[in-house]
Design brief:
Elements (H helix, E strand, L loop, with lengths): L1 E5 L3 H12 L3 E6 L4 H6 E6 L5 H10 L4 E4 L2 H5 L2 H7 L3 E2 L8 H4 L1 H10 L8 E4 L2 H10 L4 E5 L9 E2 L7 H13 L7 E5 L4 E10 L3 E3 L4 E2 L2 E3 L3 E4 L4 E4 L10 H20 L5 E11 L2 E8 L6 H8 L4 H10 L12 E9 L13 E2 L1 H6 L2 E5 L2 E4 L2 E4 L5 E7 L2 H12 L2 E2 L3 E2 L7 H16 L1
Parallel strand pairs: 1-2, 1-4, 2-3, 4-5
Antiparallel strand pairs: 6-9, 7-8, 7-9, 10-11, 10-16, 12-15, 13-14, 15-18, 16-17, 18-23, 18-25, 19-24, 20-23, 21-22
Bound molecules: adenosine monophosphate (AMP) and glycine (GLY).
């Protein structure tokens, strides 16, 4: 089948590999020349992923039947509505359905209205003065979030990034002054526990879960530093995570099903992969956010482990015909993202990066190119995450070691990464943290 794939990051490269494996003929659209995606594409259009006229013309011209959309930015401007209007089926949500991600207020209010479990206390503000008055009335720690999209970098947490009332108000003022996210501020109750990602395939009604993944949002080793889009992630061979029980996982899946039911009820049924990010607390999973797409890096874990045909799953999501018959290999995966120097604060870009793909493959790992570009025959870094390396193994230890072996085959003098992701020590720290909370 002819499939349009939109986006040029690591998540999209992983999706394109999975589509290619399942026999798709790929037509890609992206703003950077991602060599991994281009190698699998019959044709590539380099342009803004939000340029709907160009994207639709390219799809029509090439007789594309199905579209996969990776990033949130084109979803927010209605790429699905536009493609459907020209007869292309989409394994992704409409503009209205994508509000589950594009408006944090929409999400919290929906969960509130339908009395879905896992919500956190929240309040939305369109000016700093009201936010300040509210802040003076509460006696628990909070999290400050711009309401709109910020590429995963807009959230600041009291006790971690914000240490007192003044710092909190400074950030609230900054969001309004610089119009970060473009839609005001949401102040949320802070949840304490261990974070996990539960993603699922959705066809408007039916929810088919993927293996659990844990992402690492903080920029530096030891979980410190600014929030990023995600520095790396792991998934285990049993598709659970070492600190969560089967019943807690079921609770998270039930929350996602309730959200999908609520969206159908609201007249904006949700189709496509959905991303649920939860904090596992002593009172069960609490909703941190939903994304209208795969997580990045999490997509690289689950799509590497996907055994079933991704093309079939996309078609089924797009046409409301999803079945339970989705299989993943019983393999553990550890993904570490190589990012440009300064990433999370102010990235340096344009540095040459060299890759020995054969060496990576022989190490038991997979490479996914992300925000890199090709200039004068050389591969160069962009300002966002550069390359994801996914080690695969029978257990986490083997997957982590394979990832480390493979990392030696990528060279650049202006990058960094978190070597601690997926290591026994860090995973144990998560297990101990949860144990400590449960026994307190
Ligand atoms: P988000 O972009 O909403 O995923 O937030 C980025 C990170 O901030 C999350 O991965 C969490 O570590 C943290 N965070 C967001 N919301 C909350 C919350 N309500 N309670 C505790 N931590 C949060
Ligand atoms: N890894 C978090 C995200 O994709 O938003």
């Amino acid at each position: 089948m002819k499939v349009l794939a939109v986006g040029g990051g690591g998540r999209e490269h992983a999706a394109v590999e999975a589509l290619y494996r399942s026999g798709a003929e790929i037509y890609s659209v992206m703003k950077n020349a991602n060599p991994g995606i281009m190698a699998r594409s019959k044709k590539t259009l380099l342009c803004s992923e939000k340029d709907l006229d160009k994207v639709c013309a390219f799809a029509k011209e090439n007789g594309v039947e199905l579209a996969y959309i990776g990033p949130e930015a084109p979803l927010e401007v209605g790429i699905v509505d536009a493609l459907e209007a020209v007869g292309v089926k989409c394994a992704a949500p409409t503009k209205a359905a994508a509000r589950i991600e594009t408006s944090k207020t929409f999400m919290r209010e929906l969960v509130d209205k339908y009395k879905i479990k896992g919500n956190l206390g929240f309040a939305h503000f369109d000016n700093a003065k009201d936010a300040e008055a509210y802040l003076k009335t509460i006696d628990h720690e909070i999290v400050v979030k711009p309401v709109g999209l910020t590429g995963g970098k807009g959230v600041k947490v009291q006790g971690e990034h914000l240490h007192n009332f003044e710092e909190t108000m400074d950030y609230v003022n900054e969001i309004f002054d610089a119009n970060i996210g473009g839609a005001g501020v949401i102040l949320e109750e802070k949840a304490v526990g261990e974070e996990f990602t539960q993603m699922a395939f959705v066809d408007g009604k039916k929810v088919v879960p993927m293996p659990l993944v844990q992402d690492h949002k903080r920029a530096y080793e030891g979980d410190v530093g600014p929030n990023t889009g995600g520095m790396g992630s792991y998934s285990d061979a049993d598709h659970l995570l070492p600190f969560i029980t089967e019943s807690e996982r079921k609770d998270a899946i039930a929350i996602i099903q309730s959200v999908i039911d609520a969206m159908a009820e609201e007249g904006c049924p949700y189709r496509g992969p959905i991303y649920g990010q939860f904090m596992l607390t002593v009172n069960g999973p609490k909703i941190i956010e939903f994304n209208a797409r795969f997580g990045d890096p999490e997509a690289m874990n689950v799509l590497t482990a996907l055994e079933s045909s991704f093309q079939d799953i996309c078609w089924q999501m797009a046409t409301g015909t999803l079945t339970e018959d989705v299989k993943f290999f019983d393999k553990a995966t550890v993904c570490k993202y190589i990012v440009p120097k300064g990433y999370g604060v102010k990235s340096e870009s344009g540095h040459e990066i060299t890759v020995d793909e054969d060496g990576i493959r022989k190490s038991g790992a997979v490479i996914y190119y992300a925000n890199v570009d090709q200039k004068d025959g050389k591969l160069v870094t962009g300002t966002s995450r550069s390359i994801g390396i996914v080690g695969v193994g029978k257990d986490l230890e083997e997957a982590e070691q394979n990832c480390e072996k493979a990392l030696q085959f990528v060279k650049c003098d202006a990058i960094f990464l978190r070597h601690d992701i997926g290591t026994r020590a860090l995973v144990q720290k998560r297990v101990d943290h949860m144990k400590e909370l449960r026994s307190a």
